Amino acid sequence: MLDALPKNLLPKSPARAPLLEVRGLKKAFGGMIAIQNVDLSIAEGSVHAIIGPNGAGKTTAFNCITAFVPPTAGTIFLGGARIDGLPAHVVARHGVARTYQNVRLFPNMTALENVLVGQHRRLHTTFWEAIIGSGRFRREEAEARERAREYLAFVGIAQRAGDLARNMPYGDQRRLEIARALVAGPRILMLDEPAAGMNPAEGRALVELIERIRAELGVTVVLIEHHMRVVMAVAERITVFNRGAVLTEGPPAEIQSDERVIEAYLGRRSGHVATPVVESEPHRPMEARIA
Ligand SMILES: Nc1ncnc2c1ncn2[C@@H]1O[C@H](COP(=O)(O)OP(=O)(O)O)[C@@H](O)[C@H]1O
Ligand SMILES: [Mg+2]
Questions:
Q1: pLDDT band at 284, cuts 50/70/90?
Q2: Which is nearest to 275 in space by CA: 212, 221, 226?
Q3: Which of 161, 166, 175, 234 is the most exposed place for a label (fewest CB within 10 A)?
Q4: Using CA positions, which residue lies closest to atom 4 of ligand 1?
Q5: What's the CA angle centered on 246, arms 240 and 252, to 5 degrees?
Q6: Which atom in ligand 1 lies closest to the alpha carbon of residue 30?
Q7: pTM of the full structure
Q8: How does pLDDT run across 178-205, given as a tens digit for each residue?
Q9: Which pLDDT score, from 0 to 100, does residue 289 have?
Q10: How far is the centre of ligand 2, averaged over its atoms, from the C-alpha of 69 (Å)?
């Protein structure tokens, strides 16, 4: 009888099981292989950084995981559920949220409106209820605004609620994008170069914010980042990408002193770590990137 088995023979689940598991991920654009054989394991409740020279394939990996582009091969699991092959909005519903290397906001909408856009998946009002202005619609609308304000406050830009996104300083736009991602209630937040364009003080504030996202909201964070001070201060583990593959993975102290990592950064034409030369927008043709 199974019931008679002593309980201590049951396998114990590890304290921090992987939340995100990527195996053998590959993405080819025409004949050009952007990434291949990429394995990633992100522990639940951790902050995990992805570093590597420009063009190494970091953003492409994010784009595949979030279903922004379809992977050519590989499997992606979130909390044990397979998510590769699902449309982007379904992947989002599984709890994956992201920001973009090039900030993507609605420039002519206010900060508050930009955050409201991020939480539509939480609302239950039907089209007809909205048209007739039902009680549920008005209640949900009020709650959504309240929640949007809470997240603006959480990322530290409560005073900007009524400002148009395009009029906000760059650092605040990045925070706004994070608020919009968080309001959807994700399990994992993927930040693509959140410190880009920030000064050292803003970088330190960002480290603090990421730590609060993990500790207070319980959201696992993966960030692609070039600013090594930010990476070393915030990440528990680091995965290094080079030439479309994973070069190595480990805790910050190990990565920092790894000869191969130093070489990957210094040994390439565009390998200057602090200044991303090539921006990555998936819809941009390849010629534009190489130029
Ligand atoms: N939509 C796309 N079409 C064609 N090539 C792309 C596309 N997106 C990325 N690439 C190419 O894939 C490679 C990896 O780019 P990317 O993932 O943006 O690198 P990283 O984020 O590490 O700088 C680059 O050579 C880039 O030009
Ligand atoms: Mg990138």
A1: very low
A2: 226
A3: 166
A4: 286
A5: 25
A6: 4
A7: 0.84
A8: 999 999 999 999 999 999 988 899 999 9
A9: 32
A10: 14
